[in-house]
Amino acid sequence: MPSTVELKRICSQTRRDIVRMVAAPKSGHPGGSLGCVEFFVSLYHEIMKPDASKFDMNGKGEDVFFLSNGHISPVWYSVLSRYGYFPVKELSTFRFLNTRLQGHPTTHEGLPGVRMASGSLGMGLSCGIGAALTKKLNGESKLVYTLHGDGELQEGQIWEAAMYASAKKVDNIIATVDVNGRQIDGDTDDVIALGSLRAKFEAFGWKVFECDGNNLNDLLKTMAECKAATGKGVPVINLMKTEMGMGVDYMMGSHKWHGIFPNEEQLEDALGQLEETLGDY
Amino acid sequence: MAIKKLTEDRDTRSGFGAGLQELGQENKNVVALCADLTGSLKMNDFENDNPDRFFQVGIAEANMISIAAGMTVGGKIPFTGTFANFSTGRVYDQIRQCVAYSGKNVKICASHAGLTLGEDGATHQILEDIGMMKMLPHMTVINPCDYNQTKAATKAIADLDGPVYLRFGRPKVPNFTPEDQKFEIGKAWKVEEGTDVSIFATGHLVWKAIEAQAILAEKGVSAEIINIHTIKPLDTEAIIASVNKTGCAVTAEEHQKNGGLGDSVAQTLALNNPAPIEMVAVNDSFGESGTPEQLLEKYGLNTESIVEAALKVIARK
């Protein structure tokens, strides 16, 4: 297990980036972004470790990732830039006219690191399965990772994809669900209760893991277990419990900060809670 | 008329199946996906030749389109196959986000388009698909007219790096375009020269237009027949040049007037060379059960309808 000291430093800076990115254009989705910081930092810096200097659309010979719940683009953009995909200063362009950092991720503006547009929900698991099938055809042993919101699981296409992956033994994909229990209109339990996700995915033939997604040690250990479970004829999923708004006290504990921006005072409050470890953009 | 049938009547979907089979042999990056309609789409030969490159996704079209988009990551060229209805309206958001906006090299191959699906009725007879697909940025829209042209188009789109909607049909229809034709995407094919009216036809109605030309000739009318197999990008040069000569236009298609080939030709003429135009197409209506010929007659898409439209538009000059 790698030391998590450096990862924690990156996480803190990523959280600063997120709140600053949504405050500047006065729009964006900080809640889910903050909750998934540990996942993205771990994914790039410890799990996939892709070569950012050699990004191409095909991703041959390396693990590839698809973000299905595209609205948490701020955390992805921050991690991509600080990992080396594009200049960190470009984070200041998020959601402004002529930016490569569109409100929701896209290939359309040529941003390195992104291989599929997302935003309209429920499609990313299918996309990931497609890439996984191609990796098998190409004789590759590398993996495909996807991330989904728990509210997103209300989309029917997710279950089409879940059924396909087990039926066709797509065992080179690791899906992760951000189980924060919140969505725009309220708690998932109040909007459309999801019931037991473990029971649902197990019934669909997946190997299911669970972890605390805001605990780096637990997350890294569980993702390693997920990786060890690949190649055994069944698809693998990690139900990752997180706290929406993690790291900023007034954003935690409700769905309220799913998709609103902090004002200047709130931004200062948030930044006072998040150590600047790598230098703001 | 100079154009002759070359074989017995054949279905355009079989042209797709034949083209796909050849692609399977020639291009190892071509993969095919089907949503439980392998026989209807004539994809069996590809499946038998290349079981490892054929993906049965079941009755889950949204999943199929997004899987296809994902398969391009790593260099595959996916051809998806299902009915036109389930290839477009049912999966519009998946096509829009994962294929068109993401710029993926996916070929959406759609059979049983239009009224000539026949007895299954309006639930399956999509007449809006051309409109939906041509509205999407980056999307190429192709509607070939016979078996040979569908086979040639199927092979040609594999060489185009980008999303394509390929539309074809169920019934056996005349096969009259050359077997060895070079299919040029975006390039209209002048079937017959004429001077009095330009008839722009696509899909199954190209043969009807050829039949109409013979009837019009008996009436002393010289009709130019142009096959618009590529609705997007539209060969506007060919359209403008023809209407500059004839002074009026008829469009013929198995689709709604709203959003179809007629719309595209009318826009081209309005912006460049305003001229009278008549549209042979379905007039804001759903279809119904019946034989293909019965339906084409009832909904005004047969040879006589094209003759009438030609005479009407000439009178408006």
Can you describe this structure?
The complex is a heterodimer of chains A (281) and B (317). Chain A has 281 residues and is of the alpha/beta class. Chain A is 39% helix and 12% strand. Chain A is built from ten helices and seven strands. In chain A, the strands form two sheets. Chain A has a five-stranded parallel β-sheet, sandwiched between helices. In chain A, a hairpin with a 2-residue loop joins strand 4 and strand 5. In chain A, helix 1 (5-23) crosses helix 4 (73-83), helix 3 crosses helix 9 (216-228) and helix 5 runs parallel beside helix 6. The two termini of chain A are 30 Å apart. Chain B has 317 residues and is of the alpha/beta class. In chain B, the strands form three sheets. Chain B has a seven-stranded mixed β-sheet, with helices on both faces. Chain B has a five-stranded mixed β-sheet with strand order 9-11-10-13-14, sandwiched between helices. A two-stranded antiparallel ribbon of chain B has the order 1-8. Classes of the chains: A alpha/beta (281), B alpha/beta (317). At the A-B interface, helix 5 and helix 6 of A face helix 3 and helix 5 of B.
Furnish the topology, listing elements before pairings:
The complex is a heterodimer of chains A (281) and B (317).
Chain A: H1 5-23, H2 30-35, H3 37-48, E1 64-67, H4 73-83, H5 124-137, E2 144-149, H6 156-167, E3 173-179, E4 182-183, E5 186-187, H7 188-192, H8 197-203, E6 207-212, H9 216-228, E7 236-241, H10 264-273
Parallel strand pairs in A: 1-2, 2-3, 3-7, 6-7
Antiparallel strand pairs in A: 4-5
Helix pairs in contact in A: 1-3, 1-4, 1-10, 3-4, 3-9, 5-6
Chain B: E1 10-11, H1 12-26, E2 30-34, H2 44-49, E3 54-56, H3 61-71, E4 77-83, H4 84-87, H5 92-101, E5 107-111, H6 129-134, E6 140-142, H7 147-157, E7 164-167, E8 172-173, E9 189-192, E10 197-201, H8 205-218, E11 223-227, E12 230-232, H9 236-246, E13 249-256, H10 261-272, E14 277-282, H11 292-298, H12 303-315
Parallel strand pairs in B: 2-3, 2-4, 4-5, 5-7, 6-7, 10-11, 10-13, 13-14
Antiparallel strand pairs in B: 1-8, 6-12, 9-11
